[in-house]
Amino acid sequence: MSPSDKDVDYTEKDLERYQEARMVRRIVVAVISVLIILMIAGGTTGYLYVKSALEPKDSDSEAQKEIEIPLGSSVSTIGEILEENGIIKNGTIFKYYVKFKNESGFQAGNYTFSPSMTLDEIVSSLKTGKVMKEAVLTVTIPEGKTIEEIANIYANHTSFTKEEFLDKVNDPDYIGQLIDRYPTILSDVVLDPQIRTPLEGYLFAATYDFYEENPSVEEVVERMLSKTEEVVIPYLDEIDQLGLTVHEAVTMASLVENEARNFEDRQIIAGVFYNRLDQNMPLQTDPTVLYALGEHKDRVLYEDLEVDSPYNTYKYAGIPIGPISNFAENSLQAIAQPEETDYLYFVASYEGDIYYAETYEEHLRLKEKYRN
Protein backbone atom coordinates (compact mmCIF):
# COMPACT_ATOMS: atom_id res chain seq x y z
CA MET A 1 0.00 0.00 0.00
CA SER A 2 1.37 3.42 -1.00
CA PRO A 3 1.62 6.39 1.39
CA SER A 4 -1.09 8.17 -0.56
CA ASP A 5 -3.48 5.29 0.10
CA LYS A 6 -2.81 5.53 3.84
CA ASP A 7 -3.56 9.25 3.77
CA VAL A 8 -6.86 8.59 2.08
CA ASP A 9 -7.87 5.93 4.67
CA TYR A 10 -6.96 8.23 7.54
CA THR A 11 -9.03 11.08 6.11
CA GLU A 12 -12.13 8.90 5.67
CA LYS A 13 -11.98 7.64 9.27
CA ASP A 14 -11.45 11.14 10.54
CA LEU A 15 -14.49 12.31 8.61
CA GLU A 16 -16.64 9.55 10.10
CA ARG A 17 -15.56 10.52 13.63
CA TYR A 18 -16.24 14.17 12.91
CA GLN A 19 -19.74 13.37 11.68
CA GLU A 20 -20.46 11.21 14.77
CA ALA A 21 -19.20 13.97 17.09
CA ARG A 22 -21.32 16.50 15.26
CA MET A 23 -24.41 14.32 15.66
CA VAL A 24 -23.73 13.87 19.39
CA ARG A 25 -23.33 17.64 19.82
CA ARG A 26 -26.66 18.22 18.10
CA ILE A 27 -28.39 15.72 20.38
CA VAL A 28 -26.81 17.26 23.48
CA VAL A 29 -27.80 20.77 22.38
CA ALA A 30 -31.34 19.57 21.71
CA VAL A 31 -31.63 17.91 25.13
CA ILE A 32 -30.23 20.96 26.92
CA SER A 33 -32.61 23.21 25.00
CA VAL A 34 -35.57 21.08 26.03
CA LEU A 35 -34.41 21.12 29.66
CA ILE A 36 -34.02 24.89 29.60
CA ILE A 37 -37.50 25.28 28.12
CA LEU A 38 -38.95 22.96 30.79
CA MET A 39 -37.15 24.87 33.56
CA ILE A 40 -38.47 28.18 32.25
CA ALA A 41 -41.97 26.74 31.90
CA GLY A 42 -41.76 25.18 35.36
CA GLY A 43 -40.54 28.42 36.85
CA THR A 44 -43.32 30.35 35.16
CA THR A 45 -45.90 27.84 36.30
CA GLY A 46 -44.53 27.93 39.84
CA TYR A 47 -44.54 31.71 39.84
CA LEU A 48 -48.13 31.84 38.61
CA TYR A 49 -49.18 29.23 41.18
CA VAL A 50 -47.64 31.16 44.08
CA LYS A 51 -49.03 34.45 42.75
CA SER A 52 -52.51 32.91 42.57
CA ALA A 53 -52.21 31.45 46.09
CA LEU A 54 -51.40 34.90 47.48
CA GLU A 55 -54.62 36.34 46.08
CA PRO A 56 -58.06 36.10 47.84
CA LYS A 57 -59.77 32.74 47.47
CA ASP A 58 -62.84 34.44 45.98
CA SER A 59 -62.69 38.23 45.79
CA ASP A 60 -66.41 38.44 44.89
CA SER A 61 -67.64 36.28 47.77
CA GLU A 62 -69.93 37.77 50.41
CA ALA A 63 -69.93 34.59 52.49
CA GLN A 64 -68.85 34.72 56.13
CA LYS A 65 -67.58 31.79 58.15
CA GLU A 66 -66.94 31.44 61.85
CA ILE A 67 -63.58 29.81 62.50
CA GLU A 68 -61.95 28.91 65.80
CA ILE A 69 -58.19 29.29 66.13
CA PRO A 70 -57.25 27.12 69.13
CA LEU A 71 -54.81 28.26 71.79
CA GLY A 72 -51.21 27.42 70.90
CA SER A 73 -51.86 27.00 67.16
CA SER A 74 -48.72 27.23 65.01
CA VAL A 75 -48.66 29.18 61.75
CA SER A 76 -48.80 25.83 59.91
CA THR A 77 -51.90 24.80 61.88
CA ILE A 78 -53.59 28.14 61.25
CA GLY A 79 -52.86 27.80 57.53
CA GLU A 80 -54.37 24.31 57.49
CA ILE A 81 -57.50 25.52 59.34
CA LEU A 82 -57.98 28.43 56.94
CA GLU A 83 -57.47 26.22 53.88
CA GLU A 84 -59.82 23.48 55.16
CA ASN A 85 -62.51 26.10 55.75
CA GLY A 86 -62.18 27.58 52.27
CA ILE A 87 -60.79 30.95 53.36
CA ILE A 88 -57.40 30.72 51.61
CA LYS A 89 -56.13 28.73 48.65
CA ASN A 90 -53.05 27.13 50.16
CA GLY A 91 -52.02 26.75 53.79
CA THR A 92 -48.36 26.12 52.97
CA ILE A 93 -48.10 29.33 50.93
CA PHE A 94 -49.77 31.16 53.84
CA LYS A 95 -47.13 29.81 56.21
CA TYR A 96 -44.22 30.95 54.04
CA TYR A 97 -45.88 34.31 53.39
CA VAL A 98 -46.17 34.92 57.14
CA LYS A 99 -42.51 33.95 57.64
CA PHE A 100 -41.41 36.12 54.72
CA LYS A 101 -43.28 39.09 56.21
CA ASN A 102 -41.85 38.23 59.65
CA GLU A 103 -45.33 38.33 61.21
CA SER A 104 -46.05 36.87 64.65
CA GLY A 105 -48.20 37.35 67.73
CA PHE A 106 -51.32 35.63 66.36
CA GLN A 107 -54.10 35.31 68.92
CA ALA A 108 -56.39 32.38 69.57
CA GLY A 109 -60.13 32.95 69.43
CA ASN A 110 -63.26 32.79 67.31
CA TYR A 111 -63.01 34.75 64.08
CA THR A 112 -65.29 35.55 61.19
CA PHE A 113 -63.44 35.33 57.90
CA SER A 114 -64.47 35.58 54.27
CA PRO A 115 -62.92 34.05 51.12
CA SER A 116 -62.77 37.62 49.77
CA MET A 117 -60.16 38.68 52.36
CA THR A 118 -56.54 39.23 51.37
CA LEU A 119 -53.74 37.50 53.26
CA ASP A 120 -52.77 40.84 54.79
CA GLU A 121 -56.31 41.35 56.08
CA ILE A 122 -56.34 37.87 57.58
CA VAL A 123 -52.92 38.38 59.18
CA SER A 124 -54.05 41.73 60.61
CA SER A 125 -57.18 40.16 62.15
CA LEU A 126 -55.16 37.33 63.67
CA LYS A 127 -52.70 39.80 65.23
CA THR A 128 -55.34 42.08 66.74
CA GLY A 129 -57.71 39.29 67.76
CA LYS A 130 -60.60 41.10 66.12
CA VAL A 131 -63.28 39.53 63.97
CA MET A 132 -63.86 41.01 60.56
CA LYS A 133 -67.23 42.54 61.46
CA GLU A 134 -70.08 42.24 63.91
CA ALA A 135 -73.10 40.02 63.34
CA VAL A 136 -76.17 41.87 62.07
CA LEU A 137 -78.60 39.04 62.86
CA THR A 138 -78.60 36.56 65.75
CA VAL A 139 -81.13 33.75 65.97
CA THR A 140 -81.41 31.25 68.83
CA ILE A 141 -82.90 27.82 68.14
CA PRO A 142 -83.79 26.03 71.40
CA GLU A 143 -83.47 22.30 72.01
CA GLY A 144 -86.39 19.98 71.38
CA LYS A 145 -87.80 21.95 68.43
CA THR A 146 -89.31 20.41 65.32
CA ILE A 147 -88.60 21.59 61.78
CA GLU A 148 -91.95 23.39 61.73
CA GLU A 149 -91.14 25.26 64.94
CA ILE A 150 -87.68 26.15 63.60
CA ALA A 151 -89.30 27.47 60.42
CA ASN A 152 -91.54 29.71 62.53
CA ILE A 153 -88.57 31.12 64.45
CA TYR A 154 -86.64 32.01 61.31
CA ALA A 155 -89.73 33.46 59.64
CA ASN A 156 -89.95 35.92 62.54
CA HIS A 157 -86.35 37.07 62.06
CA THR A 158 -85.65 36.88 58.33
CA SER A 159 -87.14 37.86 55.00
CA PHE A 160 -88.24 34.35 54.01
CA THR A 161 -91.52 32.82 55.14
CA LYS A 162 -92.23 29.66 57.08
CA GLU A 163 -93.63 28.11 53.90
CA GLU A 164 -90.49 28.93 51.90
CA PHE A 165 -88.32 27.35 54.58
CA LEU A 166 -90.45 24.20 54.71
CA ASP A 167 -90.59 23.93 50.91
CA LYS A 168 -86.79 24.00 50.74
CA VAL A 169 -86.16 21.43 53.50
CA ASN A 170 -88.69 19.09 51.88
CA ASP A 171 -87.27 19.43 48.35
CA PRO A 172 -85.83 15.99 47.41
CA ASP A 173 -83.34 17.48 44.95
CA TYR A 174 -81.97 19.85 47.58
CA ILE A 175 -81.84 17.07 50.17
CA GLY A 176 -79.88 14.97 47.67
CA GLN A 177 -77.32 17.76 47.36
CA LEU A 178 -77.05 17.99 51.14
CA ILE A 179 -76.50 14.23 51.44
CA ASP A 180 -73.53 14.57 49.08
CA ARG A 181 -72.22 17.58 51.00
CA TYR A 182 -72.66 16.13 54.52
CA PRO A 183 -72.10 12.37 54.13
CA THR A 184 -70.88 12.07 57.72
CA ILE A 185 -74.35 12.76 59.12
CA LEU A 186 -76.82 12.44 56.24
CA SER A 187 -77.70 9.37 54.17
CA ASP A 188 -80.41 8.29 51.76
CA VAL A 189 -82.44 6.98 54.70
CA VAL A 190 -83.74 10.52 55.32
CA LEU A 191 -85.52 10.32 51.95
CA ASP A 192 -87.73 7.44 53.13
CA PRO A 193 -91.24 8.53 52.10
CA GLN A 194 -92.58 7.60 55.55
CA ILE A 195 -90.33 10.18 57.21
CA ARG A 196 -92.34 13.34 57.73
CA THR A 197 -89.51 15.80 57.05
CA PRO A 198 -86.06 14.64 55.83
CA LEU A 199 -84.01 17.02 57.99
CA GLU A 200 -86.06 16.61 61.17
CA GLY A 201 -83.61 16.38 64.07
CA TYR A 202 -80.59 17.42 62.00
CA LEU A 203 -80.86 21.21 62.44
CA PHE A 204 -78.89 21.71 65.61
CA ALA A 205 -80.11 23.72 68.57
CA ALA A 206 -77.75 26.69 69.01
CA THR A 207 -77.39 30.45 68.67
CA TYR A 208 -76.45 31.46 65.13
CA ASP A 209 -74.83 34.72 64.09
CA PHE A 210 -75.36 35.96 60.53
CA TYR A 211 -73.40 38.75 58.88
CA GLU A 212 -76.06 39.82 56.43
CA GLU A 213 -79.58 40.97 57.22
CA ASN A 214 -81.34 38.54 54.92
CA PRO A 215 -79.59 35.17 54.76
CA SER A 216 -81.07 32.64 52.35
CA VAL A 217 -82.83 29.46 53.47
CA GLU A 218 -79.89 27.49 52.07
CA GLU A 219 -77.37 29.46 54.12
CA VAL A 220 -79.42 28.96 57.30
CA VAL A 221 -79.91 25.23 56.73
CA GLU A 222 -76.27 24.60 55.87
CA ARG A 223 -75.01 26.57 58.87
CA MET A 224 -77.17 24.38 61.10
CA LEU A 225 -76.10 21.15 59.40
CA SER A 226 -72.44 22.14 59.78
CA LYS A 227 -73.05 22.61 63.50
CA THR A 228 -74.73 19.21 63.76
CA GLU A 229 -71.78 17.62 61.95
CA GLU A 230 -69.36 19.35 64.33
CA VAL A 231 -71.26 17.99 67.35
CA VAL A 232 -71.79 14.44 66.03
CA ILE A 233 -68.27 13.66 64.75
CA PRO A 234 -66.64 13.24 68.22
CA TYR A 235 -69.21 10.53 69.07
CA LEU A 236 -68.94 8.49 65.86
CA ASP A 237 -66.77 5.75 67.38
CA GLU A 238 -69.08 5.29 70.36
CA ILE A 239 -72.13 5.27 68.09
CA ASP A 240 -70.51 2.60 65.94
CA GLN A 241 -69.58 0.50 68.99
CA LEU A 242 -73.22 0.55 70.06
CA GLY A 243 -74.17 -0.87 66.66
CA LEU A 244 -76.13 2.23 65.69
CA THR A 245 -76.16 4.27 62.50
CA VAL A 246 -75.87 8.03 62.78
CA HIS A 247 -79.55 8.30 61.84
CA GLU A 248 -80.52 5.93 64.66
CA ALA A 249 -78.28 7.82 67.10
CA VAL A 250 -79.82 11.17 66.16
CA THR A 251 -83.27 9.61 66.50
CA MET A 252 -82.48 8.24 69.95
CA ALA A 253 -81.02 11.60 71.01
CA SER A 254 -84.27 13.30 70.03
CA LEU A 255 -86.28 10.84 72.16
CA VAL A 256 -84.05 11.37 75.21
CA GLU A 257 -84.22 15.13 74.66
CA ASN A 258 -88.00 15.04 74.98
CA GLU A 259 -88.10 12.73 78.00
CA ALA A 260 -85.73 14.40 80.48
CA ARG A 261 -84.31 17.78 81.44
CA ASN A 262 -80.89 16.93 82.88
CA PHE A 263 -77.94 14.88 81.69
CA GLU A 264 -78.09 12.31 84.50
CA ASP A 265 -81.70 11.36 83.76
CA ARG A 266 -80.98 11.34 80.03
CA GLN A 267 -78.19 8.81 80.56
CA ILE A 268 -80.45 6.56 82.65
CA ILE A 269 -83.32 6.81 80.17
CA ALA A 270 -80.95 5.99 77.31
CA GLY A 271 -79.98 2.87 79.27
CA VAL A 272 -83.67 2.01 79.77
CA PHE A 273 -84.27 2.29 76.03
CA TYR A 274 -81.32 0.00 75.23
CA ASN A 275 -82.54 -2.52 77.83
CA ARG A 276 -85.96 -2.57 76.20
CA LEU A 277 -84.48 -2.92 72.72
CA ASP A 278 -82.37 -5.86 73.94
CA GLN A 279 -85.54 -7.60 75.15
CA ASN A 280 -87.52 -6.74 72.01
CA MET A 281 -89.86 -4.54 74.04
CA PRO A 282 -91.40 -1.45 72.42
CA LEU A 283 -89.89 1.79 73.69
CA GLN A 284 -93.33 3.20 74.58
CA THR A 285 -92.29 6.83 74.85
CA ASP A 286 -95.12 9.39 74.82
CA PRO A 287 -93.32 12.12 72.81
CA THR A 288 -93.31 9.83 69.75
CA VAL A 289 -97.09 9.54 70.00
CA LEU A 290 -97.48 13.31 70.15
CA TYR A 291 -95.20 13.67 67.12
CA ALA A 292 -97.26 11.06 65.28
CA LEU A 293 -100.42 12.98 66.15
CA GLY A 294 -98.84 16.24 65.05
CA GLU A 295 -100.03 18.16 68.09
CA HIS A 296 -99.02 19.08 71.63
CA LYS A 297 -101.04 17.68 74.53
CA ASP A 298 -100.44 17.84 78.25
CA ARG A 299 -101.50 14.25 78.62
CA VAL A 300 -101.44 11.30 76.20
CA LEU A 301 -104.70 9.34 76.28
CA TYR A 302 -105.08 5.60 75.71
CA GLU A 303 -106.88 6.27 72.45
CA ASP A 304 -103.86 8.29 71.25
CA LEU A 305 -101.66 5.23 71.59
CA GLU A 306 -103.48 3.64 68.66
CA VAL A 307 -102.38 6.21 66.08
CA ASP A 308 -100.99 4.27 63.13
CA SER A 309 -97.62 5.83 62.47
CA PRO A 310 -94.04 4.51 62.15
CA TYR A 311 -93.18 7.10 64.82
CA ASN A 312 -95.54 5.54 67.37
CA THR A 313 -93.31 3.53 69.70
CA TYR A 314 -96.32 2.00 71.44
CA LYS A 315 -97.54 0.42 68.23
CA TYR A 316 -94.20 -0.41 66.61
CA ALA A 317 -91.15 -1.91 68.33
CA GLY A 318 -87.59 -0.79 67.74
CA ILE A 319 -86.13 2.64 67.11
CA PRO A 320 -88.68 4.84 65.32
CA ILE A 321 -88.23 5.73 61.68
CA GLY A 322 -86.63 9.10 62.39
CA PRO A 323 -86.04 11.90 64.90
CA ILE A 324 -88.94 13.81 66.40
CA SER A 325 -87.04 17.07 67.12
CA ASN A 326 -83.56 18.51 67.39
CA PHE A 327 -81.50 17.92 70.52
CA ALA A 328 -78.84 19.25 72.87
CA GLU A 329 -75.35 17.79 72.73
CA ASN A 330 -75.74 16.14 76.13
CA SER A 331 -78.70 14.15 74.77
CA LEU A 332 -76.42 12.74 72.08
CA GLN A 333 -73.74 12.16 74.71
CA ALA A 334 -76.31 10.33 76.86
CA ILE A 335 -77.20 7.84 74.14
CA ALA A 336 -73.49 7.40 73.30
CA GLN A 337 -72.60 6.90 76.99
CA PRO A 338 -75.74 5.41 78.61
CA GLU A 339 -76.00 4.55 82.30
CA GLU A 340 -76.04 0.78 82.75
CA THR A 341 -78.93 -0.33 84.98
CA ASP A 342 -81.56 -3.06 85.12
CA TYR A 343 -84.39 -0.55 84.70
CA LEU A 344 -87.02 -1.27 82.08
CA TYR A 345 -89.55 1.42 83.01
CA PHE A 346 -89.70 5.05 84.07
CA VAL A 347 -92.42 7.55 84.85
CA ALA A 348 -92.22 11.32 85.13
CA SER A 349 -94.19 13.23 87.76
CA TYR A 350 -96.07 16.38 86.81
CA GLU A 351 -93.22 18.32 88.47
CA GLY A 352 -90.71 16.74 86.09
CA ASP A 353 -89.05 14.29 88.48
CA ILE A 354 -88.40 10.84 87.00
CA TYR A 355 -88.80 7.51 88.82
CA TYR A 356 -87.42 4.21 87.56
CA ALA A 357 -88.48 0.60 87.95
CA GLU A 358 -87.17 -2.83 87.05
CA THR A 359 -90.56 -4.55 86.98
CA TYR A 360 -93.94 -3.68 85.55
CA GLU A 361 -95.60 -4.07 88.95
CA GLU A 362 -93.23 -1.54 90.50
CA HIS A 363 -93.78 0.78 87.55
CA LEU A 364 -97.55 0.67 88.07
CA ARG A 365 -97.13 1.60 91.74
CA LEU A 366 -94.93 4.56 90.82
CA LYS A 367 -97.37 5.60 88.13
CA GLU A 368 -100.26 5.47 90.56
CA LYS A 369 -98.30 7.51 93.09
CA TYR A 370 -96.89 10.23 90.84
CA ARG A 371 -99.26 10.48 87.86
CA ASN A 372 -102.71 10.21 89.43
Overall description:
This protein is mainly alpha-helical and 372 residues long. It has three domains: 65-128, Endolytic murein transglycosylase (Dna Ligase, domain 1, 2-Layer Sandwich); 137-232, no CATH class; 234-371, no CATH class. It is built from 14 helices and six strands. It has helices spanning 3-53, 75-84, 91-100, 119-128, 147-155, 162-169, 172-181, 217-232, 236-241, 246-259, 263-278, 286-293, 329-336, 360-371, and strands at residues 65-69, 109-113, 137-140, 207-210, 345-348, 354-357. A hairpin with a 5-residue loop joins strand 5 (345-348) and strand 6 (354-357). It is elongated, with a radius of gyration of 33 Å. The termini are far apart.
Number of domains: 3
Query: What is the helix tally?
Result: 14
Main sheet: strands, sense, barrel: 2 strands, antiparallel
Overall mean confidence score, pLDDT:
86
Instruction: Return residue spans where pLDDT drops below 50 for at least 5 consecutive residues.
Output: 1-10
Strand content: 5-15%
What is the molecular shape? elongated
Question: How many β-strand runs?
Answer: 6
Report the radius of gyration as a whole number of Å. Answer: 33 Å
